[in-house]
Amino acid sequence: VSIRLLECLAVVDLCCVVNWMLVPCITMIARSWVLGTVVCVVHNFLVYVFFYIEGFVIQAISCFRIFSLLRPFSARALSPKFAVISVIVVSAVIIVYTIAGYIYFGRIYFFAADALFC
Question: Is 0.90 surpassed by the pTM of this model?
Fold first, then answer.
């Protein structure tokens, strides 16, 4: 299960790198935002979704390791499907939570800024 969680973390990290680096590189090459408003909103939405999913996957790895220390034989009985299903459920909850916040506020709010990154 721990290996499956690490594989899920690697996939989320890869998505983060692609999302966080590709769009800013295009912006730096063009010297302005050329991708439009929809891509701007989707890009900023995905930044926060991947950020939260990564944090929760790291927490799932920590919880599984604590569980495997407390109950080693029960932890061995868990299938790798459990890890994948737990990451999918957490990802779905995070996406719904982020969409609900976007619908409520009417736009995506950032940590200390009032405007979008683009």
Answer: no
